[in-house]
Amino acid sequence: MFTNQIKIMLYVDNVEESAAFWQSVGFHEFERQEMDGTLIVEIGLSATAESRLVLYDRTFIEKHSPEVALNSPSIMFSSDDIVSLYKKMQELGVTLGDLVKLGEEMVFNFADNDGNYFAVSGK
Question: Where is the VOC domain (predicted)?
Answer without folding.
Answer: 2-123
